[in-house]
Design goal:
By secondary structure, the protein is an alpha+beta fold. The protein is built from 4 helices and 7 strands, in the order E-H-H-E-E-E-H-E-H-E-E. It is 30% helix and 36% strand. A 7-stranded mixed sheet has the order 1-2-3-4-5-7-6, sandwiched between helices.
Length: 165
């Protein structure tokens, strides 16, 4: 297996992360995000994150091949500070190579160090691979948000899952 390095993203990683968004959004089937973030938007987002949040990148030979975001559930009240939300995005040729597992373990370690107790994720209902992946990690399905995603005039439900650290 290829040697993958997982680390916290820096603002200068914005262009490579944006390039991954372009690929993911073009697929139009795995993510609820349908328009890629520009390098400028991604850089601004990275800069805006608190010390308790992050984007974690998977690198192979100095190329970012995937990333996972960890954001606070809500920033308007500290009563939610123990809950984080994640999203995982891996380039097609790098899927099913345990990169998602490595990113998730890194994110979980980061989350524990920053006093998170629970992680949640929303997954498109049609993305059975992701639902299975998170189930294997121990996430539990808590509900379905009907017709939550609309891309190209097609609806998809979202599955809401949670994991207690």
């Amino acid at each position: 297996m290829a040697q993958i390095c997982i680390r916290k993203a820096l603002p200068e990683d914005a262009e490579e992360i944006s390039d991954i968004w372009i690929v993911i959004c073009a697929e139009r089937e795995y993510s609820a995000v349908n328009r890629p973030f520009t390098p400028k938007q991604e850089r601004e987002y990275l800069i805006s994150l608190s010390d308790h949040e992050g984007i974690f990148v998977a690198e192979f030979e100095d190329q970012i091949v995937g990333f996972q975001s960890l954001d606070r559930w809500a920033k308007y009240s500290d009563s939610f500070d123990h809950v984080g939300v994640i999203g995982t995005f891996v380039l097609p040729m790098w899927r099913r190579k345990k990169i998602g597992n490595q990113l998730t373990q890194y994110s979980f370690n980061f989350a524990r160090k920053h006093n998170y107790e629970k992680i949640v994720i929303y997954i498109r209902a049609s993305n059975s691979g992701a639902i299975n992946f998170y189930s294997i990690l121990g996430f539990v399905q808590k509900g379905i948000l009907a017709r939550q995603v609309k891309i190209d005039n097609q609806y998809d439900d979202e599955i809401f899952m949670e994991f207690f650290l």
